[in-house]
Amino acid sequence: MVKALPEPYGTCNYKRILFQFTEEISSKNVFLRLPSEFSPLERMLLQATGNLQRILSAYYNVPSRVKIIKNTVVPDDTKPSQTTKQFERKIVMYFGDTLAYEADSVLMVKDSNILELIEKHKYGLGQIFGHTHKSPDFVLHAVGRRGNAPGASFWRDYSLTIPNVLDCFIRETFVEGLFEKYHGDRKEGTVWYSENQAHIFTTFI
Predict the structure, then answer these.
(1) HEC profile for 130-172?
(2) Exposure string for 9-39, b = 16+ CB within 10 A, e = fewer
(3) What is the pLDDT of residue 2?
(4) pLDDT for residue 55 is more than 70
């Protein structure tokens, strides 16, 4: 079983709201329902599907810069394999000199080429998905805010999957004041979560 990321720190007293992140895709419509408490720019980031770096690079009009804090193989004695490996990663993302977000992730790598990109070349996820030339399946599991208004730090928990290649569970935490200054209370917060959030890690293997 994939090792789970812990709950975001300091959120035990936050308000929790069950939310249906309904995605509607048709020949004439693409829509992912998100909580109205987030600003339009924040909602753009919350539903980014493997192109977050590109979006924020366009916003700041500077190149992105990834700093890898952790890139560790997790031993798995139950399923020894030369090509399937589990990684725990942590990165921080800058645009120019501006820190925008940090990301904690659990990766299940099932392709030898992707394994080399992670182990040898230390690729970020955006670069990895660009290398595959495939669009990952995106599922949003939870979003949260450390405060009570736009401008406060916020995060999202989601998964990206390319069958037989790569499974990822990711938590991205965006800095306070990313798009606008925050003047509200920092002691309260809210978590919106889907019914499948608690079961995400059992679906990967």
Answers:
(1) HHHCCCCEEEEEEEEECCCCCCCCEEEEEEEEECCCEEEEEEE
(2) eeeeebeeeebebeeeeeeeeeeeebbebbb
(3) 52
(4) yes
Find all residues with CB under 8 Å of 34, minimum gap 6, and list them. Answer: 21, 43, 46, 47, 143
Q: Report the residue count for the chain.
A: 205
**Of the candidates 127, 125, 133, which has an alpha carbon nearest to the alpha carbon of residue 107?**
125
- Determine contact, residues 147/188, Cβ cutoff 8 Å: yes
Q: Mind listing the pLDDT tens digit for each residue in 178-201?
A: 999 999 888 899 999 987 655 444
Q: Are strands 85-95 and 64-74 parallel, antiparallel or unpaired?
A: antiparallel
- Across 72-107, b (16+ Cβ under 10 Å) vs e yields eeeebeeeeeeebbbbbbebbbbbeeeebbbbbbbb
With a pLDDT cut of 90, the percent of the chain lying above it is 45
